[in-house]
Amino acid sequence: MTHTWDSEAVGVLRLPSGLLLRGRGLRNPIPEGPAPDFGLYLLGEQPPHVDWESRWLRWPDFRLPADRVEAAEAFREIAKRAAAERVEVACGGGRGRTGTALACIAVLDGVPAAEAVAYVREHYDRRAVETPWQRRYVRRFAA
Prior knowledge:
Distance between the termini: 35 Å
Strand order of the largest sheet: 1-2-5-3-4
Oligomer: single chain
């Protein structure tokens, strides 16, 4: 059975292919509605326990992923799982690291790397991808 997000729900990003992902900030309450089937958590320290399958990617606030190969692998996993599962990507505030990850996943979905930050800002959060090095990371992600 396929589980997907409501495309109008808070934090849900629709990729050009139609895949739906939820981004959120872990400092905020969990949004109303169904729980994720899988979560990717982007934090400098191990995330709190959740009742669904999850993966932790070490990623300090305002920085880049500690292991870029592992990050690319995690983004590919998210893109694949989103076809049949409710997947969320989250960091502390839900903008910088989450926006950067969502932009990289958008690149995997076919958005040109040079346009991915603008795409995520338009369709997810206008303040997503907070730092110049996060924007550069997205532009260079596909290379």
